[in-house]
Amino acid sequence: MQKMPIINIGVHQPTLHKNIVSRQDCQTLIDYLKTPGDTYDARPDVISKHPLWNKTEWPQHIAEKALDKILPSGYIVDEIAIMQSKIALKPHCDWIDHDTVIVALDADPIAHTVFFKNRIPMRPVASHPAAFLTKTPWSPFQYEMPDKHNKMTKIDDIRELYKQCIESPESIENFVIDEDFLSMLKQLIKKRSQPRLDHDKQTAEDVPTPRITDYAKWVTDYDPNSKFPAKVHEKYLSHVSIEDLHGLSVDKIFEWDKGDIMHFNGSQVHSASGVHNQKTFMTVFLHYTN
To answer: Of the candidates 112, 102, 81, which has an alpha carbon nearest to the alpha carbon of residue 209?
Structure first.
């Protein structure tokens, strides 16, 4: 059988739909996320579930009702992620050549999504649907996790931290070193050592999205001589090195409110703001076929 070509929905500008999902339905999705079970994944920085459309038993009727309010008929859902996150994602594209819908379920104290005028129209890595942008050195073994005071702390290499825990635990001041902590580190190291694949080939061992550094090769409307506005960086994106932002330009900034929905083409570069302590949301990746 010939495979049908993928066609994106044609959203050229990010769109914010206000008050689409009721507070009650937001809470139902949050409660579902926090209930351990199939696809439940709890890590120090993120709790997530990835239900399968028309396969997993979950509050799909809420998602379907919301999508039907903002989309024409005929959409095909590729992947769903419901997450509670203590971290802020840096500039990236989602599922390139597909569309993204983000439902804001909660935020403490407030969250934003910053959209750039720039896009990544082709996959930099053929086996991976998405891409992060960074000019600064990066490793999959970098990690942010809460310390014993519940303050998010950046770890340059979790492998080195694990080694230090084993060899000289008394030298570590910021974390409580016990069997649970060691087990968590071992699992994180294992997961971050595996290749990331498309959705139909993914397993629970997948590592984060690969990074690309060659903006000029992959990013549209990139201006290597343009400096990113310092005030915008300070207000919204202080968690991102400003060196990673030079050459990019801001399109829109959406402030989250419970029940709002953002709809945009996944090829558009966007970033979370870094001002929230925690946020909960549902992301749906989808496409159309003819």
So the answer is: 81
Question: pLDDT digit string (tens) for 32-76?
Answer: 999 998 888 888 889 999 999 999 999 999 999 999 999 999 999
State which amino acid sits at residue 14.
Answer: P
Cβ density class 215-242: b for 16+ within 10 Å, e for less: beebbeebeeeeebeeeebeebbebbee
Indicate the SS3 state at residue 29.
Answer: helix
In the chain, where does the domain assigned CATH 2.60.120.10 lie?
6-137+198-289
pTM of the model: 0.82
Q: Which CATH code of 3.90.550.10, 2.60.120.10, 3.40.718.10, 1.10.3720.10 fits the domain covering 6-137+198-289?
A: 2.60.120.10
In this predicted structure, the answer to whether residue 266 has a pLDDT above a threshold of 70 is yes
Question: What whole-number percentage of the chain has pLDDT above 90?
Answer: 68
pLDDT at 9 over 90: no
Q: Quick one: tokens of 96?
A: 């390139």
What is the DSSP secondary structure assignment for residue 50, as one 8-state letter? -
Look up residue 134 and give its two tokens. 């960074």
DSSP notation for 105-150: EEEES--EEEEEEEE--S-SSTT-S-EEE-SS---TT-EEEE-TTS
